[in-house]
């Protein structure tokens, strides 16, 4: 199947679809036995705030929303206090709240998303991508490893310690 994927800014009209995708991801994390996203975050207010601030992005497959992520430029206060060390101190893109619609699960969508994020980062002249995930999010840990993200240490975020990774784009 030859499908076209595109990354675009989320719009408020996408809110309900994004929230549905996030709810699916929250339930998947719960079924996997993870503590990530099980305390009322993210929620519909998070989605609305992401869109209003310009952080919300969707990856579409043939025009249909398949993946949601928040992309934040140079702003994650929790990253100032890493137990470890980042690879760079320059500008960076932060990736948060990655969620894949169940219809697209198991099709390599998160890897495609990271390809788009890296291209976005490069096109904006930004040096690196930083991301964190829960210690028990095996799927994301595997993706970050496969995409050559480097483990940098731990950050305290959303009520718990998270593994922090960075990839230098150029």
Describe this structure in words.
With 170 residues, the chain is α+β, with helices and mostly antiparallel strands. It contains 4 helices and 8 strands. The chain has helices at 15-31, 44-53, 109-123, 138-146, and strands at 5-9, 56-61, 64-73, 83-84, 92-100, 128-133, 150-157, 160-168. An 8-stranded mixed sheet has the order 1-2-3-5-6-8-7-4. Helix 1 crosses helix 2 (44-53). The protein is globular, with a radius of gyration of 15 Å. It starts with a strand and ends with a strand.
Which structural class do you get from the secondary structure elements? alpha+beta
Q: State the helicity in percent bands.
A: 25-40%
Q: Tell me how many strands there are.
A: 8
Estimate the global geometry from the Cα principal axes.
globular
Separation of termini?
32 Å
Question: Main traits of this protein?
Answer:
8-stranded mixed sheet; single chain; 30% helix; 170 residues; alpha+beta
Question: Could you give a quick summary of the protein structure above?
Answer:
The protein is 30% helix and 32% strand. The protein is α+β, with helices and mostly antiparallel strands and 170 residues long.
């Amino acid at each position: 199947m030859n499908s076209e994927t595109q990354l675009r800014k989320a719009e408020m009209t996408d809110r309900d679809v994004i929230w549905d995708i996030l709810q699916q991801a929250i339930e998947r994390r719960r079924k996997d036995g993870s503590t990530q996203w099980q305390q009322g975050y993210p929620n519909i207010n998070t989605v609305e705030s992401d869109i209003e601030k310009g952080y919300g992005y969707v990856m579409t497959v043939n025009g249909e929303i398949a993946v949601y992520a928040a992309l934040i430029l140079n702003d994650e206060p929790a990253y100032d206090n890493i137990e470890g060390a980042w690879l760079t101190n320059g500008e960076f893109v932060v990736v948060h709240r990655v969620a894949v619609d169940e219809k697209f699960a198991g099709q390599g969508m998160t890897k495609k998303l990271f390809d788009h994020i890296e291209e976005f980062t490069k096109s904006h002249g930004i040096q690196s991508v930083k991301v964190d995930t829960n210690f028990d999010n095996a799927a994301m840990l595997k993706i970050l490893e496969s995409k050559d993200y480097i483990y940098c240490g731990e950050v305290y975020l959303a009520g718990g310690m998270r593994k922090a990774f960075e990839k230098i784009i150029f």
